[in-house]
Structure formats: C-alpha cells, structure tokens
Design a protein that fits this description.
mainly alpha, 78% helix, 5% strand, 2 helices, 2 strands
C-alpha cells in the first residue's frame, strides 16, 4: 500500500510496535520502583522484599519471557 499513514516517518504498525515496547518497559520499571518502595516502607526485610518482588512482579514476567522466547526461536 502506497497510502500508509505515517507517524514520525513510521507506518502505524511500526509505531505501535515501538510504542508498546518502550512504554511497557517504562511501566515495568516504574512497577519495580513501586514494589521496592513498598518493601522499604513496610520494613519487609530481604526475604519479605524478595517475595514481594516475586508475587507482585509475576504479572509482567510473562511478557518479558515471551519476548525472550521469540528472540531465541527467531519468530519475531
């Protein structure tokens, strides 16, 4: 298609792909900061903080694992 809409010189699909990776990475880093701050304020200790990171961070581990598996297999 010659009439693809361009955003910053990218097609919509390319822009969405880059935006998802950048914004979701920023969100994951912010969530890690929040979990660390919560562990610090609750005085959870090393063992408690580890379990907070495991329990609360499980949500985005699947997204990161999916990206790693795609790279290893070469699907991307």
């Amino acid at each position: 298609m010659d009439n693809d809409v361009l955003i910053f010189g990218l097609t919509i699909a390319e822009f969405e792909d880059i935006s998802l990776k950048v914004c979701f990475t920023a969100l994951i880093l912010y969530m890690l900061f929040i979990i660390g701050n919560l562990a610090k304020e609750s005085k959870a200790g090393k063992y408690g903080a580890m379990w907070m990171f495991v329990g609360l961070g499980l949500g985005f581990i699947g997204f990161v694992a999916k990206a790693i598996i795609q790279k290893l297999i070469g699907i991307e």
